[in-house]
Amino acid sequence: MYYQPNRYFRSDDMMGNTSTAGNSNTTVNGNTQTGNIQNENMMSYVRLLHAAAKAPTVDVYVNDSLLVKNFNYREFTDYVKLPSGTYNVKVYPTGNKTNPAIETDLFVPPSSVITVAAIRDTNNDFSLLPAVEKPLTNPTAGKAKVRVAHLISNAPSVDIALPNGTILFKDVQFKDVEGYIEVPIGRYTLEVRLAGTEIPILYIPNIRLRSDKYYTVYAIGLVGDEPSPQVLIPLDGISYLKV
User: Fold this and answer.
1) Which of 84, 113, 132 represents a domain boundary (last residue)?
2) Domain around 207
3) Contact at 8 Å (CB) between 154 and 162?
4) DUF4397 domain location, by residue (predicted)?
5) Residue 41 burial (10 A CB sphere; 0-12, 13-18, 19+)
């Protein structure tokens, strides 16, 4: 995590009534809701990921309150605790609060842990992609849970494979966030391949997966361009946050 002190702001500044953006809506799990629920049992945790290739450093406002400033490509924020509800999100180039690169309403479902990625779409517009950390089961003792999110806008469908040819995730398309799978703990090398082939576009060595933990492999960047493809593998908050 690329956290820097004094760049993230109080979540209670954002808990007022929702202001409707009117441009677009980003919904998690197909739900919509207006307003914020203050019940402690409905609290959720949300962090942001700047995964928009070629986008500048940005400032992020939630309900018109500054959440993060000078937010750089590849960075994650810390998780922010928020009540369930709908939040207006605006993303501006740093220091230029005129025309937002993203303006949308984001619904946060109750009792959830979510990473919201700012991404570049295939038409070169920018949008938010929520990835709910919601495994169906807890890891078996001595195992870890891992999933993949395909955020490379100009890459075709991919397979995620081990060097021995074992395919862990098949035909993953842009903006897909796969479900968690359970794997033995240890160190792994992964290959991101063009789907249905053995042609690698990214080689990921020495990934360490620990017992009873959850991980998401975020594939970001651009194929044949800068920034080149790479992965980010943070520890998911569901590993340690209680909701």
Assistant:
1) 132
2) 143-237
3) no
4) 44-161, 164-232
5) exposed
Structure tokens that stand for 173 in this block: 């398309």
Contact 106, 116 (CB under 8 A): yes
pLDDT of residue 11: 37
- Do residues 105 and 39 share a domain? yes
53 has pLDDT over 80: yes
* CB-based contact 108:84 (threshold 8 Å): yes
105 and 174 co-located in one domain: no
Q: What CA–CA distance (Å, rounded) separates 141 from 213?
A: 10
**Which token pair is 228?**
């080149």
In this prediction the pTM is 0.83
Radius of gyration (C-alpha) of the chain in whole angstroms: 18
**101 in Cβ contact with 130 (< 8 Å):** no
Max intra-chain CA distance, the chain? 53
